[in-house]
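Milestone M4 deliverable, item 7.
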Amino acid sequence: MAPEEAETVELVSSPQFDDAMRDTFRVRASRFGVGSNTGPVPLQFGFLKGLCYESLPIDMAFQATLRVSDDRRLVRYTGVPRPLRGRAGSSGTVSLDPWVMSIDTPGTYRGTLVLAADPNVGYEDPAIKRIWGGDLEFPIVFTASEP
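Output delivered:
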């Protein structure tokens, strides 16, 4: 395919969209409740947080990563970034369970959930032609304890 024929996903940013996207997302207690990991040291996790979004003002396509610290050392579990995609007007929840289940040390963890705009994620949905081009960061706190 010639470069001029290739479809693109346009990154869009404006004060209007920037404010609207920040207002769309909220960190809330997850409905998934207490979970436990399957690692070498069994741990239980208190109510984890989830990231909720309601009525997106524009299509989104993000790579989501979680940076975590336990205040003694940086764990920095990012794993493989997870794609997060949605169309304007849609709502949903992003669970943190898949990320934190790799933690194998009890403690209180603080971190940051980072959503970085990524047009490549948008290509997976042919209807997405324009996405918000900014990044979002959300503070996260949770505990892991022995059962």
